[in-house]
Every structure is written in C-alpha cells, then in structure tokens.
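$ run holo --ligand "calcium ion" --emit tokens
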Amino acid sequence: MRVPSPEGVSAGKDESDIYLLRKGAGAMRKFTAGLVLLLVGMVVSPAPAAYIETFDSSNAGWYYGTINNAGDVTTGVAAWQQTGGNGYIVQGASEATNRLYGYQAKNAAIFGELSGMILTVDLQLTGSIAQYEGADPMVRFYIGSLIDETSNYFVSNDLVSWNPNRFTGWQSHKVTLSEENFLRWPNADTGDKTFAQVIATVTDIGLIFTHSSTTFNNFASLGFYGDGAAVAIDNFGTVVPLPTAILLLGAGLVRLALYKRRQ
Ligand SMILES: [Ca+2]
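-- output --
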C-alpha cells in the first residue's frame, strides 16, 4: 500500500489509488460527522454552569454589612463605582465601633450548582485595616443555608483565606468548594447539616471579614476597620475546575470513539 502523492492524485490513478482516495474521502466524512457529534456532546453534557458577577453596570443588588461589639449587624445596599469603565462595589471601613463585616450576594441561586466548583473574587484594599482584637484580619468566602429559620454556615479556613493587608491593588483569590477548605461557622450555626448538604442548598453566599482563628468566640473578632480604609470587590463567582473541564472534553471524545467504532 502506498500513500497517494499529489502527482498520484492528478495522474497515475490505478485502482489502489482510487480506493485510497475514496476511503480517504469516506474517512473525512466520518471524521467531520464525529467532530460535529463531539461538539454536540460537549454542548449537551450537563456541564456545571459557572457564573461571575462583574458589577459592570450596577451593584447587582449586593449588600454589605457592618457589626458592632454587641453583635448587631446592619446591612445596606453596597456602593457601586466604576474606574475606567470597570464597575465594582466598595465600602469604607473607617469605624472601629461599627466595622465592615462583609459582602452578601442578592441572589445565591444565580451561582448555580456549587459542588466541586471554585469560588473566585477580585479584592482591592485601600489603606490598611486592623482587626479589633489585634489579630490578623482574614477575608473568607462563606456559604450558608438558611431554611425554616435554621442556619448552617461554613467559611473558608485560614489556609485558603487571606490577610488583605498583604496585597496591593486588585488581587484575584480562589478557593475550591471542598470540605477540607471550610470550617463550620461557630457562632451563627443552629443546624447540623453537613458541608455537602449545605452546598446543595445554599441560600446565602459572599465574603465575611473576621480575624485569623478557627473560633470566632466574641463579636470583637468580627469585622475590619482602618482610618480611611475601603474594601472593593469585583468578579465574584464560580469557575469550573480544570479537571472537570477535561473530563467533559473526555466524555465528548469517548462519544466520538464509540461513534467511530460503530461505523
Ligand atoms: Ca467589574
């Protein structure tokens, strides 16, 4: 068997050449059909839907919260700003007695199925902030399930959370939504749902500002403040982990292989 050369195609057409050309054309049609099937398979596969809140035209209804030493939490609509056409939300954190406590999404459901996803946010601290008790301040992702007045909250642990004073300008932060990266919220927790149960029924999601401890045993451990300080966030949402993306592509390739085998 020989591979037809360009000359062979135009001139020396013996039977074997014609067979190879026909076979080649048939293989190309199968390949094209397979490719279409692969693309359809990738679209039809139940891919986890990622969603990023860009705040590009508004605050998207997000809230901020403040907290005092009595544990009173006050929420308000987050202030929206834009710089060079890029929108984000931002709040001042100047008051030591009424500290900035975090940001809360208006609609947790918009982030879709969360299991196995990566949470991401861009955060910019203006100035520097302190934590009321003098411990390291920590920005944490939180997820919560508040159903029938029973609350179950988890927050990202110290290993994957971060001290915003250690970063300058806009910085991207990511945490995989897996149990080893989270700890049960020690204060507000009244239920006994597991992490998996909470992640399947999230009604509340956002960022919470605390100190660096696994136990928030008093209200003074909660919230940030600093003279003239402000915390801005942008691009909060979910990212599909790379292995999942590869698995989805793999599922499409398996379909392609099965399709080819049936030919
Ligand atoms: Ca933005």
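-- notes --
The two ends are 22 Å apart (CA to CA).
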